[in-house]
# Entry
Amino acid sequence: MTTLAAVLAAEIAAHGPLTVAQYMAAALGHPRHGYYMSGDPFGREGDFITAPEVSQLFGELIGLWCVVGWRQIGQPSSVQLVELGPGRGTLMADALRAIAVAPDCRAALDIHMVEISPSLRDAQRATLDGVAVAWHDQLASAPEASLLLVANELFDALPIHQFVRTVGGWRERLVDVDQASGGFRFVLATGPTPALALVPDDIEAPPGAVVEVSPACVSLAHEIARRVVSFGGLALIVDYASEQGPLGDTLQAVRRHGRHGVLDDPGSADLSARVDFPTLMRVAREAGAGAFGPVNQGDFLLALGIEARAEALAKNATAAQRDDIAAAVHRLVDPGAMGALFKVIAIGPADAPAPAGFETVA
# Structure
């Protein structure tokens, strides 16, 4: 049993079963024992690889997207470039290298990183050595100003509540101690719980169906949209996401690049759930912002010119490097790899034209 498992078991013994959201928040973000609070989960030696770690092409194209976005919002002389969940800082480093082709844009940018993990902040400092960066525990603590915001694989790690359809209606899924094994198990609440009010009234589903809702995702999307409406800007969100709404059991754990039991050894594996992009877009629009997408990551990167950029890199590359570049492009854009699994939305001013990469969608 991990140290965190013992902490959670004691919490359950004292106060009763945890919601899935409480379990997920502790497993990922417990101040001492949470998965993201120590160590480096990224890369081939870690538990998973994100798009910025696949190739510099991803971050470079995001950087160029920001340059175009800066021009679309009127080229403000001062604007925050904010990244949520910056990992090792790889995306930001690659983006800034690309942004450097537009010195006027680069000069306007103040860099802000929203990161809760002390160890990942250290990694970001090393990656961005020489770059002036302000770190924040949450977006709400960043200065309120015009912004260009990027969030890559952040929303899928925010806590979710799960509800299961029973013959008596929706019941929240909870995490309890399994007295037989000493581990954890899922149980259903015996009656209504506070989060039940979050389940949409219009969902029709058979017994056994699962709905996932995330107040944390909704709150963050609203805060992004509020800032865009109040101060101007654009936000780009890339994630493991759904276009089908909240229906489905998508909670998963990953360790050493393979599936891991969601309730096994909390704090030792990454937990994520598919992001409900339709809900985030509705929240943004209700806050007065515009919402664009979703588009598949592959289509988005192709629209931004990933093939041309790859060809340019390949010109001065060795044969082995050219093979690596081609493999990275395939992984990022192919529908059978990351190209369709990950999707992209943007939040911007309600009356603005579609940002780059979204011209063909509403």
In short: The chain has a mean pLDDT of 93. The longest strand covers residues 233-242.
